[in-house]
User: What shape does this take?
Amino acid sequence: MRLDINESFDLEKFSELGPFKIPFQGIQEIYHLACPTSIKKFEEYKIQTLLSNSLGNYYILELAKKYRAKALFASSSVVYGKRDSSDLYESEDEIGVIDQLSERACYDEGKRFSETMFETYKQVHGIDTRIVRIFRTYGPRMPLFDGHLIPDFILNALDGKDLVLNGGKDFSTSLCYITDVIDGLVRIMDAKENTGAINLGSDVDLHIGTIAEQIIDMTSSSSKMVDGQNFAFLSELSLPHIEKVKELGWFPLIRLEDGLKRTIEYMKANKILLTSL
Assistant: This one.
């Protein structure tokens, strides 16, 4: 179903969901990942971002309360605030510092408030909520021409165009392949005990200049690297301590070169379709 979670909805009223017998069988699990994450269009979607981190959460949590469903919230590493040069890693018990009046506060402070909402519904209504702080993720099917580094790098490399390094070549980040993140989300949802907020992502620090060079090499491209813009939604964030999620048997399995190879193969196979949308 394609729905706007910022508007009230009743799943029992959709005839196409009839075979699932929701009025009788209910809903057992909710994965709540809905929130705008556009880098280039961040300014355009500020109000929608603000609402999805408040009103949207309310509708999702009321749904969980109605059916007594587990509800997993996809939070973000932004709750820790900006990267601290003295300590790159953040554990779940760290309390980050965020400017609630900054130009990107609708997302950063919004994610913190979202965590509060899920925790409050747990305290008041006994809902089994799971909070997952996801760090930067990449893979096939990411939006194109939106400022997301990996897909734009690959597409430009395949076309022999310049690779635009938004944030500069020394911009640092971690990158976790999408299948590893999905595996982590399922493991956290399936965990018998709720252990509070939990980090999910790669703990390896990378420079985007190095990643761009690797993509140029893997695609045998003649592309060059050029400096780009400093977008508000694109900032250097901390790296995760992942000891907590490791206790669930999780560890990022896909190496960067393997994840890039899979993403390159996908974009090669779908390049005409992707660029004609």
About this structure: The first strand starts at residue 29 and ends at 32. Residues 105-125 form the longest helix (21 residues).
